[in-house]
Design a protein that fits this description.
- This protein is of the alpha/beta class and about 290 residues long.
- The protein folds into three domains: about 5-115, Cobalt-precorrin-4 Transmethylase, domain 1, CATH 3.40.1010.10; about 115-220, Tetrapyrrole methylase, C-terminal domain (Methyltransferase, Cobalt-precorrin-4 Transmethylase, Domain 2, 2-Layer Sandwich); about 235-280.
- It has helices spanning about 20-30, 35-45, 60-75, 95-105, 115-125, 140-150, 165-175, 200-205, 235-240, 245-260, 260-285, and strands spanning about 5, 30-35, 55, 80, 105-110, 130-135, 155-160, 180-185, 195-200, 215-220.
Length: about 290
């Protein structure tokens, strides 16, 4: 077998989804580097393949990458497999390819299972200009900035999320972007696979008390093209303020979503906040 690094996609649920090329590569290579030796070991035993397994995960990818490059340049055929799906998609692999490119080491990516593409097609949402997001940052400023930036995308958005955080994330996105079409793809290719077309607000309510089970991919419709139906600055600010955001935070999100100057958004947010405060006082008096 030609000396290369072979990135081998593995099943995301159904073991029958592995390709003949991947099986042949695993059989013929000199060693298999993998994200989790236990999980990949189970797959190899299922296939009847016995090969040396070497751990290569997010915390040692840089070190192992150099090792792999040296072995490939020496003429060895090395396979790499992540836990499930396509290496490099929310899994190690990206830096391995960068190492090979920098060193001039040959590599090949084999086609195969991918949760993101399977979910996108299954969602029924537009596939043109689709944006793969993966997991959002967990919290803080970085998460807010990601959400604001992604809110401007017109293509469908593909997100990975923990089932325990799905409801909160759907509510947070609905508050930032407004209610949008959203499709939950759960346990793809497995026995209890589910594709649930809904909206962000509906998914937030549905799983508020009881989270879904299994691995989840959330596909969300992109921002509507500019036109008469596009939400105005005032409508966006009102929605965000009524959702509990401070005027400063509402102005920042509205500015990012609608591409208006932040000082203009902030000035209008303060006016609207005062109006809401006065309106609340009037309702109380009545």
């Amino acid at each position: 077998m030609e000396g290369k690094l072979y990135l081998c996609p593995t099943p995301i649920g159904n073991l029958e989804d592995i390709t003949l090329r991947v099986i042949h590569t695993l059989e013929a290579c000199q060693a298999v580097y993998c994200e989790d030796t236990r999980r990949t070991g189970q797959l190899l035993r299922h296939l009847g393949v016995a090969k040396p397994l070497v751990s290569c995960h997010a915390h040692n990818e840089a070190q192992r990458g150099q090792e792999i490059v040296e072995r490939v340049l020496a003429g060895e055929a090395i396979a790499y497999a992540s836990d499930a799906g396509m290496p490099g998609i929310s899994d190690p692999g990206e830096r391995l390819i960068q190492r090979c490119q920098a060193a001039g080491a040959p590599y090949e990516v084999l086609p195969g299972p991918s949760a993101s593409l399977t979910a996108l097609v299954a969602s029924g949402l537009p596939v043109q200009e689709a944006v793969f997001v993966g997991f959002l940052p967990r919290s803080g400023k970085e998460r807010r900035e990601w959400i604001a930036r992604l809110g401007r995308q017109t293509g469908s958005l593909i997100l990975y999320e923990s089932p325990l955080r799905l409801s909160d994330t759907a509510k947070e996105l609905a508050q930032a972007w407004g209610d949008r079409p959203a499709v939950l793809c759960r346990e793809l290719t497995k026995l209890h696979q589910q594709v649930l077309p809904a909206s962000l607000e509906a998914l937030g309510r549905l799983y508020e008390a009881q989270p879904p089970k299994g691995e989840c991919v959330l596909v969300v419709g992109g921002r509507a093209p500019a036109g008469p139906a596009t939400e105005s600055l005032e409508e966006t600010l009102l929605r965000l303020l009524q959702g509990g955001l401070r005027a400063k935070d509402a102005a920042r999100q509205a500015s990012d979503l609608l591409d208006v100057p932040r000082n203009v958004a902030y000035a209008r947010a303060l006016e609207l906040k005062e109006q809401l405060k006065n309106q609340s006082g009037s309702d109380t008096l009545e």
